[in-house]
Amino acid sequence: MHRIRLLNAMVIVTLLITSCGPQQKVPTSAQQGAGALDRTVLPIAEPERTVYTELDARKVTPPPRFEVKAPAGAPNVVIILIDDAGFGAAETFGGPIATPTLDRLAQQGLRYNNFHTTALCSPTRNALKTGRNHHTAETGSIMESSTTYPGNTGQVPNSVAPLAEMLRLNGYSTGAFGKWHETAPWEGSTSGPFDRWPTHQGFDRFYGFIGGETNQWAPLIYDGVHQVELPDNPNYHFMTDMTDQAVAWIRYQQALTPDKPFFVYFAPGATHAPHHVPKEWIAHWKGKFDQGWDALREETLARQLRLGVVPEGTRLAGKPEAIKDWASLSADEKRLFSRQAEVFAAFLEMTDYEIGRVVQAVEEVGDLDNTLMFYIVGDNGSSAEGGMNGLFNEMSYFNGVQEEIPALLRVIDKWGGPETYPHMAAGWAVALDAPFMWTKQVASNFGGTRNGMVVHWPKGIRSKGELRSQFHHVIDVAPTILEAAGLPEPKEVNGTAQIPMEGVSMAYTFDDASAKDRHLTQYFEMFGNRAIYHDGWLAGTIHKAPWEREPRRPLTEDVWELYDVRADFSLANNLAASNPAKLAEMQALFMTEGAKYHVLPIDDRVFERLNASLVGRPDLMAGRTSLTLAEGMTGMTENVFLNIKNKSKTITAEVEVPPRGANGAILVQGGRFGGWALYVKNGVPAYEYNFLGLQRFTIRSARPLAPGKATIRFEFAYDGGGLAKGGTGTLYVNDQKVGEGRIEHTQPMMFSADETADVGIDLGTPVVEAIGSEARSRFTGRIPKVTIEVK
Predict the structure, then answer these.
(1) pLDDT tens digit sequence for 98-128
(2) What residues does 649 pair with on adjacent strands?
(3) Cβ neighbours of residue 760 under 8 Å, at least 6 residues apart?
(4) Does the pLDDT at position 604 exceed 50?
(5) Number of neighbouring beta carbons within 10 Å of residue 155
């Protein structure tokens, strides 16, 4: 069914008021007709009420209902944003991984081969949905790395209203599904504030996860602001669940409000780590990457040249020195790394299939023709955060632990399943970013920032199956949508004057492949990796590789590169030495743009910024040394819970043991891939520290608890002397020591991106496999009070 747009493009409501009896007419600006209507101030003001003097309602014709409607013919909008997929991943852009949904949309729409992101998750997402640079949106890096410097606070200001709110206030239904990662971590508790949660950022409906990643088998998901209880289904996978929710929502919109356009933001956690995918998808890719990453880069470039998605004469850029030649690897390394790539490819293929279900839903409700769809293949380049070997548990990366080949081989057959939380080796990230050299985090190279994009809008774009090569950036998407919908950029939203959008509409390229570029200057910066693009030139510096713990040199001593991208698509020919004058000009321009957009000063710390106490950013628990909880208090993410890392702690739990004895979790934090738990198993109290899923340290009593009231206390005496040290744990019951032992290692930075702290149950994956998680781990007695203290 095609939508029927009843109103003129600039008319919200007709306010011609007639009556059958005496009344006093109060004119409003809206009554003056379409010419006086002002959509630049949102929300659009309701008309003043008519004052009546007639007593009997039967003698008066009521005025029409005030209703905000979108302009006639305004398209539906769907933004699809894949996570951590590089330019050379999807077959639509010459990559090795099948993406039939993307192919179909490209054949009927446009491929963009000069489209750019910010090189990291949160910044790209906020830039995409606000039309402003990521520092303007206070998202200089990921939310967890926020600081107090302007441009990096993690708190999107009211002066930077998101596109979703603009569309909602102009008569659109709005729904977001999947990954968010745009809420400051200290605002992620049940105490709020909820200003920067999706349902306060313009979305009527949100179904997904708030942080940067989630366990696809056991996710922490929210419907609005309420945590969702996971089904007891061994085949559950979040990618399918979020698609089911999006498809149902689209069908509801068409059924209930067929004349109202919708905006869908569909953002899978894929293909960000953990690479979780069912075995049947992995089986498709058996042996497909045995040639290795060097040969894959060559194959990809050849396909890209055949497809025309890179210009003739494009050469492969060099490979980072740290990436070994495939031919030099051992047989075990090749076997392990091939498996990692098979799982990643399966994850992307499955994701594209689920996206196909969303496209099919739009088609089945009759709206595909007038739906403006952006399919963006990556919020940055492929991720090299797996280091040289890849990771069984991605949390190892954030805690500075290198996993070794023998240990990884022991779980090779489980790779991608619920018992792993995996990431692939960095060599694959470089290969999947072909023809470029670098990867995610490297904002100074197109390997980190250039992502393939397809735009599909049959009713609005005459051209089909063509390529567009104008330089564009994610900040250009929002202005494009406003232009397509016939909406002006608002000057005021919800009472706050707006910072103008910094992007430019891409609509001029829709039917003109040779149109001159309109986005002429763009800065890039992430953790000190920085660059400036201007009118066909790019200058940048590699300050730190993703697998390096420290910067290569001080910011003032960085070595810059210079490229003429008009003749060098892949950035293979560094002109810095031969054209120092141009390089100096570009470096000066970066400083100008950096000051203008609050990029300066640059904070190049990466891992330290994950720990609020080390950088002084807001912390919900700031200044507190204790937290008192009780049963029923669950779902507390790491950044809204007392920080117990790198220090001594005491847990004191008052419990009531039933006559048949107690079992289950008392207080836990984290899950299968890192965390700790105070619990009871078969009546016996115990404490277990799970070090990254690699080692476990258990301290338990020798005898069970007696029925009735008891006080269980666990004390951990940290060794001190720096981060990640061990310590001695002592367990007490009713002030009597019942167990003692060593905990040799602790996690210094984080336990998990999405596992929680819970009283009386272990949500998500289990910290302690012996007691399980979810309903199986529920404490069978009562926990009136549990207090955790740190020193």
Answers:
(1) 999 999 999 999 999 999 999 999 999 999 9
(2) 716, 790
(3) 631, 632, 634, 664, 665, 666, 778, 779, 783
(4) yes
(5) 19
- CA torsion sign for 308, 310, 316, 320 is negative
The candidate with the shortest Cα–Cα distance to 95, out of 463, 422, 352, 465, is 352
Q: Which of 394, 388, 384, 390 is nearest to 437 (CA)?
A: 384
Task: List the structure tokens of 38.
Answer: 């002002």
Q: How confident is the model at residue 23 (pLDDT cuts 50, 70, 90)?
A: very low
d(CA 239, CA 233): 14
CA distance 198 to 650: 36
Task: Specify whether the CB–CB gap between 232 and 775 falls below 8 A.
Answer: yes
Per-residue CA distances from 36 to 10, 28, 178 (Å): 9, 10, 40
Q: Give yes or no for a contact between 349 and 98, defined as CB atoms under 8 angstroms apart.
A: yes
**Would you say 424 and 289 are in contact if contact means Cβ atoms under 8 Å apart?**
no
Whether 411 contacts 298, CB under 8 Å? no
pTM of the model: 0.94
The pLDDT confidence band at residue 215, using thresholds 50, 70 and 90, is very high
d(CA 103, CA 358): 15
**How much of the chain exceeds pLDDT 70, in percent?**
95
- Classify residue 502 as exposed, middle or buried by CB count within 10 Å of its CB (0-12, 13-18, 19+): buried
Q: What is the pLDDT of residue 31?
A: 33
Characterize the bridge pairing of strands 205-209 and 173-179.
Answer: parallel
Strands across the sheet containing 492-493: 41-42, 492-493, 496-497
Q: What is the DSSP string of 317-330?
A: PP--TTSPPGGGS-
23-32, 272-281, 558-567, 756-765: range with lowest mean pLDDT: 23-32
Least confident of 33-37, 434-438, 612-616, 661-665: 33-37
